[in-house]
Every structure is written in C-alpha cells, then in structure tokens.
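Researcher: Please translate sequence to structure tokens.
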Amino acid sequence: MNVLRERYPFSAKARQSAELALANRLAREDSGKVFDFMRGLRPAADDVELQEARIRAGLLHHRWSLVARWIDALPDAARESERWLYWRARADEALGELDAARTIYRRVARERTYYGFLAADRAGIPYAISHRPAATDAAVVARVRSLPSSPGSPSCGRWTATPTRRGSGAGSTTA
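Model: Translation complete:
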C-alpha cells in the first residue's frame, strides 16, 4: 500500500474516495489479506462510511477488540445509533464484558426497531411494542376529507364498499 502511495501521490480527498470504494467492495470478503487491508486503513474522523466499512470487516472476521475500538472512534451521532450500540454490546459480550453488554442491550431494547428486538433477544427481555400513534397534519386530514368518494374506496375514515359479485373488481366484499 505504501508503494502505491509513493508512486501515485493522490490528494487526500481522492485517496479517501478510492479507499471507500475498495472498502465497500471488499468489506464482505472473507480473506485475511482483505482484512489486513481494511485494518490498515486510517479513515478521517468525518469519513463515517469508511469507518463503518472497516467495522463490518471486523465483524465478519470476529475481531471483537478491533470492532469495539473502531466503534468507539465513530463520531458521536453514528456511535450512538442503535446499530452501533448493538454491535458494541456484542463486542463487549464476546470480550467477556458482560455487565457492559447487558447495560447496552437494555438501552437499545427499549426501542421498537430491528436492533431493539435483537438487543431484547440477547438480554432475554420482552420486546418494546409500545403503540405510537402516527403524527397527523390537520391540513392534510382536512384535504383528504374534502376528496370526493367513490364506491369501493376508503373515504373520510370509513369504508364505503358496495357488495358485488365474487371477483368483479373494486368494492368486492368476497374473496
């Protein structure tokens, strides 16, 4: 890699772009050489995509101490996402830091999301299935209510289906 850097003196931005393209293509390759390449990358602090590609390579190779270190190096917003909190807990668990892992799992498990459900499974606690009503915009609701209705289409919050013969199209109440 150093030979290439000396031979082709790209700008930092061009090098970053090339490393990101390579990392994204190679991140799922199960090869020691590829992992060594990924491990040798030094992404800029603001290059979250490249940092995440490197973490995914670490996950693929079960290199938990590197995964933990690389997640810790993410910018705050990325590091605090449910995805990376979950994987940080997995790394802690694999490294024997069970109390730290449980704490993170419980935190992530409070969310009604994919990673929240995975964390709940790891922590052995119930899923957070709290109902959250959808946000409504009064102007949008008023506009929908003003739309003309037609047989077989929902309108104004009610179903206005007209029974028809089996399989005869919209409004059919039989299957």
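Researcher: Any highlights?
Model: The two ends are 64 Å apart (CA to CA).
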